[in-house]
Amino acid sequence: MIEIAWSQFTPGAALAGGLLIGLAAALFLLLNGRIAGISGILGGLLTPTRNDIVWRIAFLAGLIGAPVAWQLASSLPPIEVNAGYPVLVVAGLLVGIGTRYASGCTSGHGVCGLSRLSLRSLVATLSFMALGFVTVFVIRHLMGA
Amino acid sequence: MKYSFASMLAGLIFGLGLIVSGMANPEKVLGFLDIAGLWDPSLAFVMAGAIIVGLIAFAVARKRTLSFLGFNMKLPTNNHVEKRVVIGSMMFGVGWGLAGFCPGPALVALGAGEMKAVVFVASMVAGMLLFEFFERLELFARKAGEA
């Protein structure tokens, strides 16, 4: 019933990139003793305490600097954003409120939480995955956008 | 200093991983979320790769009280599945499905100079600020209720 998009499916690159993401989370955990959760690292900056401003900014600078570093060696793969600006604003607000309310996103709950076999993170991951599937289904197949 | 350097390194590798995996591209993420259309399973392979490494890292971390740089391990202690985890994740899922962005890839796309990512990240930060505001409002209401 499910049709695979073979021309878009990139299992090798996906696995390699995933291993890198895992390595980043492992380094952060084993060197600094923390969970690499992007929404938490960013959100924590909005209510900063004295000792946690610099490392949060350093992590985000590394993340935002990654495409800049990449471009020193080669050109970036395409970034296609088809959503219009009003949709992006609504989506951004939902992602911001939702991830903070749930204490985590794809990285904190999805990658780190599942890696530490947390039931709480499994429930979170299943919840955002399910609503992601439903939302895309509604937009692409019911509304036909 | 060591702490911030390790943070930056982790952030950089995380970002490079997102680019290599193709997940910095919202259209690719939406290709995974669109199971009723032509389905691109790549995102599942990204998760699998990350979790394989993560499982090992957490198995090592669990046995330690200090990190390899000598810092306290700050592992989550709350394992309750509260309603807010489900409701918050559902809200996040709708936003994720609308734009194809979650926080990490959005920041990478912002670093790539993508204007739409700038707008998404600005809205996401606004959402996070709204959350802080509601939290404080709730705390205030609770305190007022007790008084």
Automatic annotation (TrEMBL), chain A:
PANTHER family xref list: INNER MEMBRANE PROTEIN YEDE, SULPHUR TRANSPORT DOMAIN-CONTAINING PROTEIN
Q: Which family does it belong to?
A: Belongs to the TsuA/YedE (TC 9.B.102) family.
User: GO terms for CC?
Assistant: plasma membrane
Transmembrane regions: 12-32, 53-73, 85-102, 122-143
Please report the organism this UniProt entry assigns to the protein: Marinobacter persicus
Cell compartments where the protein resides:
Cell inner membrane
The protein's UniProt keywords, in alphabetical order, are: Cell inner membrane, Cell membrane, Membrane, Transmembrane, Transmembrane helix, Transport
Task: Please give the superkingdom of this protein's source.
Answer: Bacteria
What name goes with this protein? Uncharacterized protein
Q: Does the keyword Transit peptide apply?
A: no
Q: How does it sit in the membrane?
A: Multi-pass membrane protein
What is the predominant subcellular site recorded for this chain? membrane
TrEMBL record, chain B:
**Membrane spanning stretches:** 42-61, 85-111, 117-134
UniProt KW Membrane keyword? yes
> Keywords in UniProt for this one?
Membrane, Transmembrane, Transmembrane helix
Q: Any keyword Membrane?
A: yes
Q: Which InterPro entries match?
A: DUF6691 (IPR046513)
Question: Which branch of life, at top level?
Answer: Bacteria
Protein name in the entry? Uncharacterized protein
